[in-house]
Amino acid sequence: MIFLTSVLLGFLFQNVKTARILLTVMDQGRSHATSFNAFMHRLQQDNHTTALEFAKFHPDIDFGMEEKFVDMDGFQNPFASPDFDKIAFEEDYSFIHQAVAYGFGSETCNNILNHKREKFFEIVSEDWDLYLSDSLFAVCGYGMAEISGKPHVMMHSTDLESAQGSFKGFSRYIYSKIQNISFENFRNYATFVPSNLPFTMLDFSVSKYSHRVWAAYDWFGSYIFTAIVGNFAQKWALRSIIPFPYFSFSEYNRKSSFTFTDMPDSLFPPASRTNDFFSFGAYCKSSSKPLDSEFLSFIDDPKSKGTIIIAFGTFIDWRKAPDHYYETFSTVINQLTDYRVIWSMKGDRPLGLGNHVKTSGWVPQNQILHHNKTVLFLSHGGLKSTKEAICSATPTIFVPMFGEQTRNSWLIKEKGFGRIMNKFQINVRELETHIREVLDHPSYQQNANKFLTHYMDQPIPTLDEGAFRFNKLLKYYGKMPAYFYPKSLDLSYITALNLDLLILLPVFSLYLVSK
Ligand SMILES: *[C@@H]1O[C@H](CO)[C@@H](O)[C@H](O)[C@H]1NC(C)=O
Ligand SMILES: *[C@@H]1O[C@H](CO)[C@@H](O)[C@H](O)[C@H]1NC(C)=O
Ligand SMILES: *[C@@H]1O[C@H](CO)[C@@H](O)[C@H](O)[C@H]1NC(C)=O
């Protein structure tokens, strides 16, 4: 009887292998952890155990996962340094900054391995079946997966970064099909909108030669700075646990058994795909909680023509912004007395703002966006805010600050329901023009409504499909059989980039000429 029961149970649970999964994200990685949250919670529905690891400098929100934080209270978080604010407010973000950020992550990881070594090994010694690695800056997390010998999956809080894409032999940036050499394929990395889109190219178009040259430069620079410069710091941080030739980030990506991204397919330009890539990003988080009465009574004011919400994400602190940022925004919104403005800002309410402006250290952004009186969203264009704008069909003005925010803003602008404000031209006239354009032209709202219907039109809900693929991976103990993976992973860059073929023709011509 017992035998029969266990055979039966074994049969029932055959396809429902539950696993213990550790997600490791960047230091104090609230932003990235919340990007992955929807997917992690979906995996919990399939009875997987999900835990979250990061270096914690101060208490954070509840992520709905088991917490395996390394307590770094008392240490300096390099990401919270004034250098970072300077980059966000005053510099054009590029792959060089990206390498600096890997340096920041390495600095903390070095501190962990010097001062919190027991905690590090305690986490590794728990029996994880699979590691999920934040593709950005989770240096000690990479070390954990590497020394555990367990398979690991790459998690991208936005689209696959160009360097990481190249490490994985993806055709979208680099690899053209060897059997079917087409110049169109080969140019892919140049015809893609670069993730670090500079402010001089907010009108990016693949038909412009200079823009394609920039895209190729961005791809190449990202590759060099991630594979060599950023990796140098990682090698140093992990040197005590990964001996010579030390940790290789490109190899770590190459060996990863799967790649999941949070960038919605329907938002991104069409791109080639490999088996081991899936985007679970096209979902909407429901705003089930009703809006707080404090905000509701403010919004429902019958004299109001609509609500404008200003929220710049977790990283941006108005108090640290150069003075002209606050002056410009306050001057312009003080004139919009017909509207109700909700402005998310930390610290005390500054003097001189009108009664139609409500400031708050925390605002229920998603609920406000879903309120039908909300007419405009001013934000930095992080992917989570971008998706909330899409899901609530709210016209936007994005002021991108760093990372891939310019690219996200560009994607929304292309869909016709957003405008991009250049952070190097923050002045009253610019901001006024942008706001009036959106408020006075119904096309922005119409395009937002139209895009939302396309966005959610998926054959299977993406989180379900992602969970299905994840479970399939687990069926094979976290690494698919070799046939599943693209051949380009095993080719040298000379071959994968067709450089050998490109060199052949000139050499042959030279040979003929010299005859
Ligand atoms: C998860 O576990 C619960 C309780 O044991 C069970 O009822 C449910 O069917 C399981 N879900 C899946 C997807 O296996
Ligand atoms: C190569 O690509 C073209 C279209 O770009 C297609 O018509 C052709 O069938 C392909 N050839 C092979 C061998 O796949
Ligand atoms: C907004 O929603 C309220 C109820 O929540 C409804 O009474 C009102 O008609 C809606 N307004 C518009 C313009 O859709």
TrEMBL record:
Per its UniProt record, what SUPFAM superfamilies does this chain match?
Answer: UDP-Glycosyltransferase/glycogen phosphorylase
List locations, semicolon-separated.
Membrane
Q: How does this chain sit within the bilayer?
A: Single-pass membrane protein
EC number assigned by the record: 2.4.1.17
Q: Name one GO molecular function term.
A: glucuronosyltransferase activity
GO CC terms on record?
A: membrane
TM spans (from-to): 491-513
Thylakoid found in the keyword field: no
Pfam families for the chain: UDPGT
Record's keyword annotation contains Glycosyltransferase: yes
Leader sequence range is 1-18
Which InterPro entries does the entry mention?
A: UDP-glycosyltransferase, UDP_glucos_trans, UDP_glycos_trans_CS
What catalytic reaction does the record list?
A: glucuronate acceptor + UDP-alpha-D-glucuronate = acceptor beta-D-glucuronoside + UDP + H(+)
Keywords in UniProt for this one? Glycoprotein, Glycosyltransferase, Membrane, Signal, Transferase, Transmembrane, Transmembrane helix
Give the family this protein belongs to, as stated in its UniProt record. Answer: Belongs to the UDP-glycosyltransferase family.
Q: Mind telling me what this protein is named?
A: UDP-glucuronosyltransferase
